[in-house]
TrEMBL record:
Presence of the UniProt keyword ATP-binding in the record: yes
Pfam family, any one: ABC_tran
Superkingdom, taxonomy of origin: Bacteria
Family matches, as PANTHER family: CARBOHYDRATE TRANSPORT ATP-BINDING PROTEIN MG119-RELATED, GUANOSINE IMPORT ATP-BINDING PROTEIN NUPO
Keyword Secreted found: no
GO molecular function ontology, one term from the record: ATP binding
Protein name (record): ATPase component of uncharacterized ABC-type transporter
Length: 491
């Protein structure tokens, strides 16, 4: 169906893709693996008309094609589900889905709603037809991602590119997506599936290609593939097991009593817990259960009722003052934690620019020196400290947020999906970093939809179910099954 031959792409001195050749047939799923910055996103951008290759050719159904724009890609039957949803937030779900349909002139809104309701009812993605009239801004990150997938499928593409489609989906939502992929395979759709989650790749892919530093370094069938071999191809080494977390200290860093946060649907209510120095409290939940509201309220970004104390004193309700007291915040969505038009160096200094200034002036060499140190420490791959963040891969952009929030050694870290979009090697680095922070006395509230991550790192685990806090329970008493019941049933 789709074939790439010797694709090469440069960005100045950076060779993003170096003679890459791939193919995917009808009814086949080709998984594309690689570290952050390996060239996966560049390859996807070339296929979707965002960039033009410097060398090589693209063949669709045996015919060489040029793809000068996303519109041209769509006309050729190539659909992309991007890593970050690109939806019109002020418009309704129905209006966003209409962009994926070919509608006749003067198509009424009621007719559109009837047509879309049928699509939602037949889809395995679990989107409620009642969402159609809601503005996209009211949806959770997971709901937006499922909406983006459904919008792409409405155009009945020949080739579907899924770029990290499960990054913010719960295991149940991901299973719904995999069921949809299997159905589409039977209908002859060619799928390119990009993910850092090796278990998912081994479940859904027919073949797996691995990129490293812009070159294809291996390709194996699913039957022949193992996690260990895929990791070795991706990062060039074997990963060692994580150390056990050290016991927490007695000092209470964060106290939450009767927290109530207004939100769409069921409010977040009656949340009470304490978090000690050196403790990691993992919180799981189905998308939309109140995780975002909990973290944003504690970060000073949302109004709330109840009592919150940091080191025995009331927590300010202002994000700048909260950070000044030693609270770091990794937000749910990268877009809210970065200024994409600013360079890496300035994004890394957003929290500390006042302290870095001399007589009110920021000096370029000071910003550059600090940025280079953090880029080395957190292994951020960028052409230079002055490259705009929007040009970085998703995983490297996530590392910019982590570097900025963790560089000052916070007393409390509010971490929501801290490994969102990062490769398996970088996940290991982030996990070790969190364990090291906890060992130094930082209290960590870890909110994640990756249950393995929560169970691997946490001292205690809890869940959110329809706005209610369930738990916490000691990690030793937690299993995937028990945590799943806490998420799904609230008990």
């Amino acid at each position: 169906m789709l074939r790439l031959e010797g694709i090469t792409k440069r960005f100045g001195p950076v060779l993003a893709c170096d003679g890459v050749s791939l193919e995917v047939g009808r009814g086949e799923v080709l998984a594309l693996l690689g570290e952050n910055g390996a060239g996966k996103t560049t390859l996807v951008s070339l296929l979707y008309g965002l960039y033009a290759p410097d060398a090589g050719r693209i063949l669709l159904e045996g015919r060489e094609v040029r793809i000068p724009s996303p519109q041209a890609a769509q006309r050729l039957g190539i659909a992309l589900v991007p890593q970050h949803p690109e939806l019109l937030e002020a418009h309704t779900v129905a209006e966003n889905l209409a962009l994926g349909l070919r509608l006749p002139p003067f198509f009424t809104q009621e007719a559109l709603l009837r047509r879309l309701q049928g699509h939602l009812e037949r889809s395995a993605l679990g989107l409620d037809p009642g969402f159609l009239r809601l503005p996209v801004a009211a949806l959770s990150a997971g709901e937006k991602q499922r909406l983006e997938i459904l919008k792409a499928l409405l155009s009945h593409p020949k080739v579907l590119i899924l770029d990290e489609p499960t990054s913010v989906l719960t295991p149940r939502e991901a299973e719904g997506l995999f069921g949809e992929i299997r159905r589409l395979k039977e209908e002859g759709l060619a799928v390119i599936f990009i993910s850092h989650k090796l278990d998912e790749v081994l479940e859904v892919a027919d073949r797996i290609a691995v990129l490293r530093a812009g070159r294809k370094v291996g390709e194996v069938s699913r039957k022949e593939a193992t996690k260990e071999e895929l990791i070795r191809l991706m990062v060039g080494r074997r990963l060692s097991p994580l150390p056990r977390a050290l016991p927490p200290k007695e000092e209470v860093v964060l106290e939450v009593e009767g927290l109530h946060v207004p939100r769409r649907g069921v409010p977040l209510q009656g949340v009470s817990f304490a978090l000690r120095a050196g403790e990691i409290l993992g919180v799981a939940g189905v998308a939309g259960s109140g995780q975002s509201e909990l973290v944003e309220a504690l970060a000073g970004l949302r109004p709330y009722g109840g009592e919150v104390r940091l080191l025995g004193k009331p927590l300010p309700r202002d994000p700048a003052r909260v950070f000044a007291l030693g609270v770091g915040h990794v937000p749910e969505e990268r877009s809210t934690g970065l200024a994409p038009g600013l360079p890496v160096a300035e994004n890394l200094s957003l929290r500390t620019h006042r302290r870095l200034a001399r007589r009110g002036v920021l000096f370029r060499k000071d910003l550059e020196a600090r940025a280079k140190g953090l880029m080395d420490r957190f292994r951020i791959q960028a052409p230079s400290p002055w490259a705009p963040v929007r040009f970085l891969s998703g995983g490297n952009a996530q590392k910019v947020i982590l570097a900025r929030e963790l560089s000052e050694g916070p007393r409390l870290l509010l971490a929501m999906h801290p490994t969102y979009g990062v490769d398996v090697g970088a996940q290991e680095e982030v996990h070790r970093l969190l364990l090291d922070l906890a060992a130094s006395g930082t209290a960590i509230l870890l909110v994640s939809e990756d249950l393995d991550e929560i169970l691997a790192l946490s001292h205690r685990v809890a869940a959110l179910h329809r706005g209610r806090f369930v738990g916490p329970i000691p990690r030793e008493e937690a299993t995937l099954e028990r945590l799943g019941r806490m998420m799904a049933e609230g008990r």
